[in-house]
Every structure is written in C-alpha cells, then in structure tokens.
Amino acid sequence: MKILHVDTSITGPASVSRTLSAEVVRAQRLLHPDAEVTVRDLASEPIGHLSGAHLLAAQGTVPEQEAVRNDLSAGRGALEEFLAADTVVVGAPMYNFTIPSQLKAWIDRLAVPGATFRYTENGPVGLAGRKKVIVASSRGGFYGPGTAAEALDHQETYLRAIFSFMGVTDLTIVRAEGVALGEEARAKAIDGARSEIAGLAA
C-alpha cells in the first residue's frame, strides 16, 4: 500500500488544507498501518511550469539547458510517484477561485498521453483509474452547490474534472469553507471536515 501526500498551501503551519491533509493521511494509516507514505510539498519544492522547452522535449528534442533537463527529471519523478500510489491525498486551498499555481504545475506533469490517459476514436480514455484520490479542500468563503458564489468555484470543479479525465472514479473531497469569516466560522468548518475524515477511517 502506497500513499502519496501532496501539499500546496503557501501559508505553512497556519494552513487549513495542510492540517486537514495531514489528518486524512493519519486516517488512511489507521486503515493501512503498513502503508508507505511519500510526501511532496509543492510550496517548498515547486515543479516548474510548462514552457516551450518542455514541449520540444516531449517531441524528442534534447534540451540544451541543464535547468530544463533537471526540471524534466523532476516532472518524471512526480508522474512516477503518482502512478505508483494506491491513494493520493492532496491539500488544495482555493486561491482566487481556483487551485494554487503550484498544484496546476504538478497536474500538468501528470496529464501525459500514454501514462494517465490516451486518445481513441471514441474520445479520451483515462488510464489512472486504479487509485483513490482524497482532496482536502479549504476556502475562505462559501462556494459549494447552492451558494450564491457557486459559479466562481474553479477549484473543486477543476480537480474533479482533471482526475476524472485521468480515469479516477474514486475521488473524495473533504471540504472546510468559510474559514476566513471569523474564528467561529473557521473552527466550525474545520470541525465539520474532521468529522468527514473520521468517517473515512470508520
């Protein structure tokens, strides 16, 4: 059993998503005491965003710059970690209605034809369906279904879409929202998310 724990928040110990993702991993380890956990912190060790040099390399051109070669190696490592994991836990705060750019850069290294999806005559087919993905989502306001700001959610909707595209059908989102609306709202949101996490280990 392999667990990949990915964090993306830039707020360090104050991060709600980091707190929740760590608790999700602890809950998973209760279910799988012998699990091997790999941690990838995309805030402290980000993967570079895609560039023209990356696209040329994907087409077979050997990059001249050592920095690009190192970044390509880091991207391959991220993909291999993802493919090897049975469970992937992602801490994903909402920044400006979407995911952190660090998380998007990581996902761009996962969405590789022939690795996590392939194109067919009938459309794309996901290849990464044999894994569980658990997202620890945090939001300053309220953007869930039925809220006035629902249309502004390009965080959870994107994550559901991209992991589904890769073939993942076992996806759970543990959400704490309204965390920027005062201490009482923050505590209530975190307590609610913790109850959901406890249910994952039941």
What portion of residues is helical? Answer: 25-40%
Whole-number mean pLDDT: 93
Number of helices in the DSSP assignment? 6
**CATH-wise, what's the superfamily?**
Flavodoxin domain
Number of beta-strand segments? 7
CATH architecture: 3-Layer(aba) Sandwich
CATH class: Alpha Beta
State the end-to-end distance. 18 Å
Q: What is the quaternary state of this protein?
A: single chain
Residue stretches low in confidence (pLDDT < 50, at least 5 long) are none
Order of helices and strands: EHEHHEHEEEHEH
Shape: globular
GO molecular function: electron transfer activity; FMN binding; oxidoreductase activity, acting on NAD(P)H as acceptor; oxidoreductase activity, acting on NAD(P)H, quinone or similar compound as acceptor
Cofactor: FMN
Function: Also exhibits azoreductase activity. Catalyzes the reductive cleavage of the azo bond in aromatic azo compounds to the corresponding amines. Quinone reductase that provides resistance to thiol-specific stress caused by electrophilic quinones.
Catalytic activity: 2 a quinone + NADH + H(+) = 2 a 1,4-benzosemiquinone + NAD(+); N,N-dimethyl-1,4-phenylenediamine + anthranilate + 2 NAD(+) = 2-(4-dimethylaminophenyl)diazenylbenzoate + 2 NADH + 2 H(+)
